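Our consortium's second objective concerns turning raw sequence data into structural hypotheses that experimental partners can test. To show how far this objective has progressed, the report includes one record in full. It was chosen at random from the queue rather than selected for favorable results. The single chain below, 80 residues long, was entered without modification.
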Amino acid sequence: MRSLAAGLTFVERQSTRGKIPRCFAIDPTGHFLIAANQDSDSIVVFRISAQTRPIDLDGQTVEVGKPGAVVFVPLETATP
C-alpha cells in the first residue's frame, strides 16, 4: 500500500508464507512487516523497500505456537 492524500492505494498482493494470517504489523522504523500465521505456527519477516519491490521476503521465519498478535515494545534506555 502507498499513502496518498486521499488514503491508501493497492500496490501488490504478497503471500504471508503460512496458513491463516492472523495479524501483521509494521515496525516503528517502517523497514519491516511482520506477519503472524496462526495455523502454521510461524511469524515471517518481510523487508519494505522503495528501491526494489514494495515488500520482499526477508528470509526469516520463526516457529511459534499459534501466534495471535504482533506488538512492538520500546526498549528503555538504561541511565546511570
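The partners drew two points from this record. The mean pLDDT is 81. Residues 21-69 form one domain. Both points have been shared with the crystallography group to help prioritize constructs.
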